[in-house]
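User: Some background: our group keeps a shared notebook of sequences we're curious about, and every so often someone picks one and asks for a predicted structure to add to the entry. Today it's my turn. The entry only has the sequence so far, pasted here. Could you supply the structure so I can complete it?
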Amino acid sequence: MQGPSAIWVNVPETGALPNGVSHRTFHSNAHNTEVGYCIYLPPGYDRQEQKYPVIYNLHGAGDNELHGFHEARVLDEGIRAGKWPPMIMVLPNGGMRTFYKDSYDGKFMSETLIIRELIPHIDATYNTIAKQKGRCIEGHSMGGRGATRLAMKFPTLFCSLFNLAGNVPRTSWDFDPTKPEVYPNNYLGPDKQTYIDNDAFELLKKNQANIKDKLRIQIWCGTQDKSHLMTVRDFHQALLSAEVDHTYMEVEGQGHGRIPIIELYREIWFDYHVESMKRAGAWS
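Assistant: Of course. Here's the predicted structure to add to the notebook entry:
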């Protein structure tokens, strides 16, 4: 497996950014460098003093902040059509193949980057609803995997989670001190507790009280996505065993590609997040 790496600022090509999307940077103390992100601001944002909810869309392995443009276009079209309320979408850069975890050696601090640096930066810089009721997290593949683990670890930060085809491994089972050069041992290090702290199944049990009936969860995966479907099913069963209400769907005939699935459900793509935020009181 190719190891983690990062180009922390990636400049978009001219004309590449969708309507309403801009590329920005902020300083990461954890990495001592500027880090790029893209942000979608809805129509009328500059003319209104209202607060807006935020969707954090995490990219897949090998990608960067120049991702999620298809989702941003779908969101913008739906807002302009009156289908969904105005919302902000943030497209972070979490590094390539970091799985949004902090490495034990401090070289890649992607959890810290998202949770302790980017989210506070967004709330301090833009007109956001800086509370659980106005914050959603989602992602595809590595992004779905990362979004799920972060939501399980920090459930009071988000009211809605959407995992699209993201593996949910039992990380605590991977601890093997005899193989320090093999992932995830070469990333998470020699302390077994770190693996437990990065295991979505263990975090579900630990934080069940703050997840159940407070964090809405949606998980989709294609029936032909063989390399991801098994762990997704496993986590679905864990949620059932924990009596955590959630929406689970296997998309018939679809593989791992995200855009074909988005196009199949384009008209309802953000309905779940919107319903989550309505129930949480974002627009009360």
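Suggested note for the entry: The chain has ten helices and eight strands. The beta strands are 21-28, 33-40, 54-58, 88-91, 135-140, 160-164, 216-222, 247-251.
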